[in-house]
Amino acid sequence: MEVATAAEELAPGAVEDALGNSAGGQGSLPRGAGRSYGDTAVNGGGRSLSTGRLGRILAWDQERGEIEAEAGVTLGQLCDRVAAAGWIVPCCPGTARVTLGGMVASDVHGKNHAHTGTLGEHVLGLTLVRSDVGSIRCSPTEHPELFRATLGGLGLTGVIESVRLRLLPLAGDRVSVERIRCRSLESVLALLRQHDRYDYGLAWVDSFSIKPAKVNSASARCLVLRATVVPGHGQGSGAGPRALRMTGALARFTPPFLFRRATMRLVNRAYFSAPTGSAATRPLGSFLFPQDEAHDTNHLYGARGAYAHHSWIPAGEDPAVHELLRRAAQPGAQSLVTVLKAFGGKHRDAPGLLSFTGSGTSIALGFVNEGDRTRRQLDALDAIVLDAGGKLYPAKDARMSAASFARSFPRVQEFARHVDPALSSNFWRRVAPEAVP
């Protein structure tokens, strides 16, 4: 696969000039922290424009809970800044090592989608720099079409220079975590959909425990983790990544051979069998950012790496969820990491043209890359999702087809009209509408 050239650092106030030099070839692509699992932030043969130097907080209204920051500010920096004043970023993915611009470009969600939706619902406005019109302010009322295209727009509508964000009140900086052991997929889905009983939640599924040959079986070893904020505890210090006391410990002490099927089968069984006990209290940051307890985990899957498959299946299509999980449990090709989240509640409308949202179930899978065999497995998973009216998540993709992208996001033609002519990516060249047969 082609790789991008070394990223060029964008300097504050010089974004427009840098973008103006992007004509010809494969164009340019803005890049944040480089945490995307696939190729949405890769521009092979073209320029990569890093937002790392765009790291200033521009405005911070502690009374209203509104903050404006440049695109290169990381989620961890935001959390550490606002938590002490009693606020929190509404939607936090599993790592705090992502940038604000990247979060907007992916329209990220967290473990609380049923309550907050995706980040795009909380973006009040942004400054975008385009090669054709220069700097432009966008919001729900100012250039609203371009604004909607930019939320979840994968960095293709222009360079996001700054973002104005509405925060949520932080009731406390610790959570009480309920750990519920289940043995059926029906039970897991029912527990996740009890939105009023928790603030943050997810379910872990042991793919090795699923019997794919039993078409009507929904038996599986599963754990549901439901976290509720403990009101009034602390001064916000536990909401940011500074609360993580073991950052980097997992990867430093985890040998690569652990992420093999034989060993993961044993690890999963042990994780499921661990005592549940009563609800445990822990720092909110350690629950929100589990990926940050590891460091440089790419090596854990071996030299060929891994494929992520993240999909959403709409409410009312539970048979498709079961079928997807059975297919992901095929002997010799099991997903090593399987995580479910409940999407929905009152947040059903997509803020962006390519937003990954809606009432239903989010399913995240992780596979060791074994070449064609793995890609055939992923194609089969795509078909299950799309036939059920679901979506594939671009931010974690490295191989979906143009046809699958168009089925996931029917408004792709409308989105394409807003793509900056100087910007491109490996992902966009693969899925752009003209590539649809």
Your description of this structure?
Mean pLDDT is 87; it is low at 243-247. By secondary structure, this protein is α+β, with helices and mostly antiparallel strands. The protein contains 14 helices and 18 strands. It is globular and about 60 Å long. 49% of the residues are buried. The strands form 4 sheets. It has an 8-stranded antiparallel sheet with strand order 14-11-13-12-16-17-15-18. A 5-stranded antiparallel sheet has the order 4-5-9-7-8. The protein folds into 2 domains: 8-167 and 404-431, Uridine Diphospho-n-acetylenolpyruvylglucosamine Reductase, domain 3 (2-Layer Sandwich); 174-403, Vanillyl-alcohol Oxidase, Chain A, domain 3, CATH 3.40.462.
Secondary structure elements and pairings:
Blueprint: E1 8-9, H1 15-20, E2 28-31, E3 47-50, E4 57-61, E5 66-70, H2 75-83, E6 87-88, H3 100-106, H4 113-116, E7 123-130, E8 134-138, H5 144-150, E9 159-166, E10 168-169, E11 174-184, H6 185-192, E12 200-206, E13 219-229, H7 249-252, H8 261-273, E14 280-283, H9 284-288, E15 306-314, H10 318-327, E16 337-343, E17 360-368, H11 372-387, E18 391-392, H12 402-408, H13 412-416, H14 426-431
Parallel strand pairs: 1-3, 2-3
Antiparallel strand pairs: 4-5, 5-9, 6-10, 7-8, 7-9, 11-13, 11-14, 12-13, 12-16, 15-17, 15-18, 16-17
